[in-house]
Each structure stands twice: as structure tokens, then as C-alpha cells.
């Protein structure tokens, strides 16, 4: 750490005494006693604070630190992020917290509605009968099931021809990274939170503690109550600052940061809490704040990060002015004060609102839509239940002079009831109950239907049927038609998932310096083990063109999101469509042109992949036909020279006709069986060989034979 000589202390030490710095006059013992008696008595807290300051001063003197903070005459240079900046950040945090107070109240109430404890949230909390129905809960459960039936899967597409190989690798590796982060569970939790509160939030971080210190990507669900942003914006990336607050145990903080000894206490920030079933104690916890903010440096957005507790800075990227080196001392990255926390320059949080609202990045959910209907349904059930109980249990009018033993009359186990004097007809009269009109039940059922309509949770979408619909295909078609809202919500979730995959790719580009092994699924479901690093997606030098530096090219990718898990009807319809294509001959390479013309007029998922496969089959078929024609032409040329029938044999083989017997042209049109000739031991033919050739063969045989 850079230091400089504190000359001020030296000058004060060596300076002569003047009236300004001369010691003050001595005070008498009586005056000191009078001042002590007139001064207020110290409290236990103030005395403990005084003793702590005295002990701290002794420790500083022992280490050579004076009151000004200088150590042995040297004072540390002020860092960019200190207590002053933290105090300003706390003021901004409190301002952001006041801006989302209504949202926090609504989130806590919606959680109570989700737990079917909404009578605690209703204005009229009196009454002994409080029936609760789960119509609204059933809506959320069905929407969550629709979301999990369409679990997303990424497909990485390159933007340039040279990045095809990296795109194929990332398409296989990114799902493995998501699986290692338990993304299916995270996706389920975020979808459930989104349906309840109106907004789901993903957090995409780099966790250095994973893989024994090697580090890896971590994806978590984030609670909106713990996030604080600038009010009046719709895109979270446009917020000037972003805070994430989390309670941590003091003992765990001291283990990780020993410098916090004596500086921790209770939580300094009042974080909104849910209504828990259990008693949650937060006395020995402190609020740990993650502060993210952006700065523009040379036209580039740099994301900075600060972690602090109370006024103590635990980590700040702007304070990290030393470059990052490896184990050998080689510089591998510039200092974080220049590059920031993440190279992508984005806040590591992704908002996924359900129903968007202007002026805020959050939305509202199905509980906000259906809580009014649910309230009147339960209030109607309350009135009907009260009437039912009043009519089901008989009540009586009893005269004061009726002379009837009420205890024996109410006890049905008593066979005899004592009375005084004469028992009259009007001594005990039953209370005549008034049955409810059917109109009230009709109104209640209408409210139930209204809740189903407004939330898009009709009976047909949950597997129910209407009168007259019995065919399985018709029911499945009606279910698919009734799931328009779910498909729309899934599209919005896919947009958030696309942003998440982009962040994952950027973290891979920044941190995957060492090769890592992945098990991926190859063609036909076979397992493959590959190693991957970020070498192929780093900025690539483009060289010089005509003496001009062309700079660096950054490989970029597009993300296509498809449903990894689909509903049974979607799978059935997709399989049925594939069978129809097969039966229509779309995969016959001879009909490739007709199939492409028909597919071009159709619209279904992943149509371009089918068209690409049909086009490739047609191209291969045309190339094969051209090669066959060339082979027949070459065979005809050979047949003309030798008098054989090779061309006829090839045509019969290509067309699938009857096989043709081969003919050898050098044997006068005879077949190989007819062309067996007599040969000598040395390979000569006795019938057709010339005489001089025969004599030469004999001389060679005689000269080489042993004597």
C-alpha cells in the first residue's frame, strides 16, 4: 500500500512551545472534585465504550499508530472506497427502501394468501367461522405445472461462420453447467415466486469457493425483499445503484473477516420479514450489503462491486489497484479498479415479471388478480356456513316462568325432564330457521367462475370436460387451445432465460481459463467426455490489412430457446406430425423439391431443421445420381474397348433389376467359365503364344536350371 511521510506530526513534535501549544495551567483538587460532582454519572454503555477506546488507543500506540492514523510517521493514502462513501451509499439504500415499501407490503400479504391464511389480511378479522377455499392456490399450482412442462433448453447459434465449432460446443456444455447449478430446482422456485409476487429474479454469480477453489458459475433465486434499486425505472440495468442485503450470523462473519472483531452488532438495516410459522431470532445477525454500481470509462461500462458491513468495507473493486497475477507472478489480468467486477458490465440479476407495470421493473401476479374474487368467495362461504350451522343445530325460546329444567332439556342423555307447575304450549318454542335462497349459491358459483375466467384456469385446462366432449383428441385439442395464457407466460420466461444464458457465456469467457472436463451426450445418445476452456471465445486478433491494424474480433452468439420438457399433448402432436411427414414421403430424397415446397407453406416448431435435413437428403441423392451416371459412362467406354458388359451390370445394380452375367471381351465374348486356358508352369499359353516367345522362355529356363 502506498504511504507517505507525515510531516505534520514531526513539525508538531519538534516545534518550540508557543502560547498556542503551551500546556494548560494545573487545576486544583477542589475544582476537580466540584466538576466531578456536578457532572452526570456515566452509564454502563458509555463506560464500556470509554474502556474500549482506551484499549484501542493502547493497541495503536503499541503498533506505532498515532491519533491521526499515521504509523511510525507514515500515513496511508486514502482509498477510493472508505467510510465516507459507505455512509453515502447507506443514505441511497434507505432512499431506495422507502421507494419500494408498498411492494414489500404486497409481497408479504401475497405470501399469506398463498398459504391460505388470507383472513389475517382481510379488514374484517372478527367472527368465529373463517372458511378458506383453495381456488386461487389451485390456479397458481396449475400455472406452475404448465411452466415445468415447458422447461427451457438453450441452443447456441453463431453469428459468424468461423464460430460454428464453438457454438456447437457451447450448445452441449451450457446445459451441463446449468445442471451442475441445479437449475431445474432454481427455475421451479423462481416460477413459483413469480406467480405469487408477480416477478421472479435470477442471480448469476461467479462463486470462487466451488470446485475446491477453482471456482464455477452459481445461479440462485433472489428474493425481491432483499433487493433495492432506483425508483421509476423499468430496466434494472438502468439503475444507478443496486443493493442486495442479506442477514448473516456474526460468528460466521468473524471467521471470514477477523477485522470485524468488536465492530458487529444487531442489524442496522430494517429488512422486511415474512410472517413465519417459527420464531426467527435476528439479534446475533448483521446485514451484509452487496453494493453494485456502474461507471463509464472510455465509452465502456464498468461494473464495480463493494461488500460492507455497517461502516466497514470488506471488499471493493476500486480499492484493488494491483494487477492480478498467477502462481508464477505473471500478470494475467489488469487490476479490478480498471476492469471492474464482471467483464460483461451488467448487474448479475435478471428480472422476469409476469404482468408488467409502467415505471417499475417488477410486475403483479395471479394473487393480485384473483384475491378480490377469492375474498368474496370465502365471505360467501362464511355466510352460508353460519346459516347452515344455525339451522342444523336447533335453538329454543324459553319463558322465564316456563318452569322447565333447561339443563335436563339440553342434555339428550336424560330420559326425564323435570318441570314446575303446569307445562304450557308456550313454555318452550323452537326457533324457526330461515333457509337461504338458491340465488346466494348461484352468486357464489358465479364468483368461482369469475375467478377461473380471470386467471385463465378453466376446467378444460386442468383436465376437466364439458358436456358433449368425450373424444380424447378433442379434449387434448381443447386443452391446448385453453393454454394460451400459459404459452404467453412461457415466452416471457424464455426471454429471461435467454438473458441468463448470455450471462453464463460471458462468465465462461471471463473465468474459464483452465480446461474443464464435461460429460455430454453425443449423436444417438452416446456419452462423450470433452475438455473446454475459454480460449476459443476470447477476443481474436484480425491482423493487419494494407498496413492498418484491424483490431480484435469478439465471438458473439445468438440464443434460441426451446422446450426441453413438453406436455404430453405437445409430444403426441409432434410425433404425429413426424409420422405424417414420413407417410407423405417427405423424407424420400427423390421428392425433396416437392417436400421443401410444402414445408415452406407450413408453420411449426423447428421447421428450419426439418427443411435443412430434407434439403441435405435431396442434395446427397442428386450427387449420388450424378456419380452413378458417370460410372455408367466410364463403363460404356471400357466395354467398347474390351467388348465386356460392365455398363449393363451397373445399370442392373443401380435400378434393382435382375443381375447380368459378366462377359470378358478379351476372350471373344466368352464367360470366365468358358475362358479357362491351358498354361505352362512359367505362365505361358501353349495355344496362342508366338514361337520366338516360346524359344526365349525355354532358354531362360535352361540357363537358370541347376547342372
Task: Please tell me about this protein's structure.
- The chain is an alpha+beta fold and 707 residues long.
- 42% of the residues lie in helices and 16% in strands.
- It contains 20 helices and 24 strands.
- A 5-stranded antiparallel β-sheet has the order 6-7-8-9-10. A 3-stranded antiparallel β-sheet has the order 5-4-13.
- Helix 6 runs antiparallel to helix 11 and helix 17 (592-600) packs antiparallel against helix 18 (607-642).
- The longest helix has 36 residues, at 607-642.
- The protein is flat, with a radius of gyration of 43 Å.
Characteristic terms for this protein:
alpha+beta; three-stranded antiparallel β-sheet; 707 residues
The coarse silhouette is flat
Rg over alpha carbons: 43 Å
Number of strands: 24
N→C terminal distance: 104 Å
Strand order of the largest sheet: 6-7-8-9-10
Percentage of β-strand residues: 15-25%
Please identify the structural class as seen in this structure.
alpha+beta
Total helical segments:
20
Instruction: Detail the poorly predicted runs.
Output: 1-25, 32-42, 67-71, 675-679
Overall average residue pLDDT: 79
* Helical coverage, percent range: 40-55%
> Biggest sheet: strands, sense, closure?
5 strands, antiparallel
Gist of the model:
Among the domains are: 83-128 and 171-358, no CATH class; 396-429, no CATH class; 625-693, no CATH class.
List the helices and strands and how they pair.
Elements: E1 3-5, H1 7-14, H2 29-38, H3 44-62, E2 74-76, H4 83-99, H5 101-114, H6 135-149, E3 152-158, H7 164-180, H8 183-197, E4 199-207, E5 216-221, E6 227-229, E7 241-249, H9 250-256, E8 285-297, E9 300-309, E10 312-316, E11 324-325, E12 331-333, H10 336-339, E13 349-353, E14 355-356, E15 363-364, H11 366-392, E16 396-398, H12 406-410, E17 428-430, H13 438-455, H14 472-481, H15 484-511, E18 516-521, E19 527-532, E20 540-541, E21 544-545, E22 548-549, E23 552-553, E24 557-563, H16 568-583, H17 592-600, H18 607-642, H19 646-655, H20 691-704
Antiparallel strand pairs: 1-2, 3-24, 4-5, 4-13, 6-7, 7-8, 8-9, 9-10, 11-12, 14-15, 16-17, 18-19, 20-23, 21-22
Helix pairs in contact: 6-8, 6-11, 11-13, 17-18, 18-19
Amino acid at each position: 500500500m502506498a504511504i507517505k511521510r507525515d510531516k505534520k506530526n514531526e513539525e508538531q513534535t519538534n516545534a518550540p512551545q508557543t502560547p498556542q501549544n503551551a500546556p494548560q495551567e494545573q487545576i486544583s483538587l477542589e475544582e476537580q472534585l466540584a466538576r466531578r460532582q456536578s457532572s452526570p454519572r456515566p452509564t454502563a454503555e458509555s463506560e464500556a465504550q470509554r474502556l474500549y477506546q482506551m484499549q484501542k488507543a493502547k493497541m495503536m500506540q503499541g503498533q506505532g499508530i498515532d491519533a491521526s492514523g499515521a504509523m511510525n510517521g507514515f500515513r496511508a493514502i486514502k482509498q477510493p472506497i472508505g467510510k465516507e462513501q459507505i455512509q453515502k451509499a447507506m443514505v441511497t439504500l434507505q432512499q431506495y427502501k422507502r421507494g419500494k415499501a408498498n411492494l414489500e407490503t404486497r409481497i408479504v400479504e401475497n405470501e399469506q394468501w398463498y398459504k391460505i391464511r388470507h383472513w389475517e389480511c382481510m379488514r374484517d378479522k372478527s367472527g368465529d367461522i373463517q372458511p378458506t377455499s383453495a381456488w386461487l392456490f389451485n390456479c397458481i399450482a396449475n400455472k406452475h405445472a404448465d411452466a415445468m412442462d415447458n422447461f427451457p433448453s438453450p441452443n447456441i447459434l453463431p453469428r459468424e461462420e468461423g464460430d460454428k465449432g464453438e457454438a456447437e460446443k457451447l450448445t452441449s456444455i451450457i446445459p451441463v453447467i446449468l445442471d451442475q447449478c441445479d437449475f431445474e430446482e432454481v427455475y421451479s422456485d423462481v416460477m413459483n415466486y413469480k406467480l405469487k409476487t408477480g416477478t421472479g429474479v435470477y442471480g448469476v454469480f461467479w462463486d470462487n469457493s466451488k470446485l475446491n477453489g477453482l471456482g464455477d458459475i452459481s445461479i440462485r433465486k433472489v428474493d425481491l425483499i432483499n433487493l433495492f434499486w432506483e425508483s421509476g425505472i423499468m430496466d434494472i440495468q438502468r439503475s444507478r445503484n443496486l443493493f442486495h442485503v442479506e442477514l448473516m450470523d456474526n460468528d460466521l462473519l468473524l471467521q471470514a473477516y477477523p477485522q470485524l472483531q468488536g465492530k458487529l452488532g444487531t442489524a442496522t438495516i430494517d429488512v422486511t420479514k415474512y410472517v413465519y410459522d417459527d420464531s426467527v431470532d435476528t439479534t446475533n445477525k448483521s446485514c451484509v450489503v452487496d453494493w453494485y454500481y456502474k461507471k463509464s470509462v472510455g465509452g465502456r461500462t464498468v461494473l464495480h462491486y463493494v461488500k460492507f458491513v455497517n461502516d466497514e468495507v470488506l471488499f471493493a473493486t476500486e480499492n484493488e489497484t494491483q494487477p492480478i497475477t498467477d502462481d508464477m507472478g505473471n500478470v494475467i489480468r489488469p487490476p479490478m479498479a480498471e476492469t471492474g467486477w464482471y467483464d460483461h458490465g451488467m448487474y448479475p440479476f435478471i428480472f422476469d415479471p409476469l404482468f408488467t407495470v409502467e415505471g417499475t421493473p417488477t410486475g403483479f401476479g395471479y394473487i393480485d388478480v384473483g384475491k378480490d374474487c377469492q375474498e368474496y368467495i370465502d365471505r360467501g362461504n362464511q355466510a352460508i356456513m353460519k346459516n347452515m350451522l344455525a339451522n342444523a343445530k336447533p335453538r329454543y325460546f324459553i319463558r322465564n316462568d316456563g318452569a322447565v329444567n333447561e339443563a335436563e332439556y339440553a342434555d339428550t342423555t336424560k330420559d326425564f325432564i323435570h318441570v314446575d307447575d303446569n307445562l304450557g304450549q308456550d313454555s318452550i318454542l323452537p326457533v324457526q330457521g330461515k333457509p337461504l335462497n338458491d340465488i346466494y349459491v348461484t352468486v357464489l358459483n358465479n364468483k368461482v367462475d369469475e375467478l377461473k375466467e380471470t386467471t385463465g384456469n378453466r376446467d378444460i385446462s386442468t383436465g376437466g370436460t364439458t358436456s358433449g366432449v368425450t373424444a380424447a383428441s378433442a379434449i387434448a385439442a381443447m386443452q391446448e387451445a385453453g393454454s394460451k395464457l400459459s404459452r404467453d407466460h412461457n415466452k416471457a420466461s424464455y426471454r429471461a432465460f435467454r438473458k441468463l444464458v448470455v450471462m453464463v457465456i460471458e462468465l465462461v469467457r471471463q473465468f474459464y481459463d483452465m480446461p474443464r472436463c464435461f460429460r455430454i451426450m453425443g449423436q444417438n445418445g452416446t456419452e462423450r467426455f470433452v475438455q473446454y476452456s475459454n480460449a476459443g471465445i476470447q477476443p481474436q486478433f484480425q491482423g493487419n490489412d494494407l498496413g492498418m491494424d484491424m483490431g480484435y474480433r469478439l465471438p458473439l452468439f445468438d440464443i434460441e430457446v426451446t422446450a426441453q420438457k413438453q406436455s404430453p399433448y405437445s409430444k403426441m402432436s409432434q410425433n404425429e406430425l413426424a409420422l405424417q411427414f414420413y407417410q407423405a414421403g417427405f423424407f424420400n430424397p427423390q421428392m425433396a423439391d416437392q417436400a421443401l415446397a410444402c414445408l415452406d407453406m407450413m408453420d411449426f416448431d423447428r421447421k428450419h431443421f426439418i427443411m435443412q435435413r430434407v434439403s441435405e437428403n435431396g442434395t446427397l441423392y442428386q450427387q449420388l445420381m450424378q456419380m452413378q451416371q458417370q460410372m455408367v459412362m466410364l463403363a460404356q467406354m471400357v466395354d467398347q474397348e474390351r467388348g465386356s458388359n460392365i455398363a449393363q451390370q451397373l445399370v442392373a445394380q443401380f435400378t434393382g433389376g435382375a443381375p447380368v452375367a459378366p462377359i470378358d471381351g478379351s476372350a471373344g465374348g466368352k464367360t470366365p467359365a468358358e475362358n479357362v486356358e491351358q498354361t505352362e508352369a512359367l505362365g505361358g499359353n501353349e495355344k496362342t503364344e508366338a514361337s520366338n516367345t516360346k524359344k526365349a522362355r525355354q532358354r531362360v529356363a535352361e540357363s537358370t536350371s541347376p547342372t
